[in-house]
Amino acid sequence: MPNSQVNAFRMNLKPGFEAEYKKRHDEIWPELQELLRQAGIAEYYIFLDEATSSLFAFQKITTTATRLSLSEQPIMRRWWDYMADIMEVNGDNSPIAVACPEVFRLPATL
Question: What is its EC number (predicted)?
Answer without folding.
Answer: 5.1.3.32
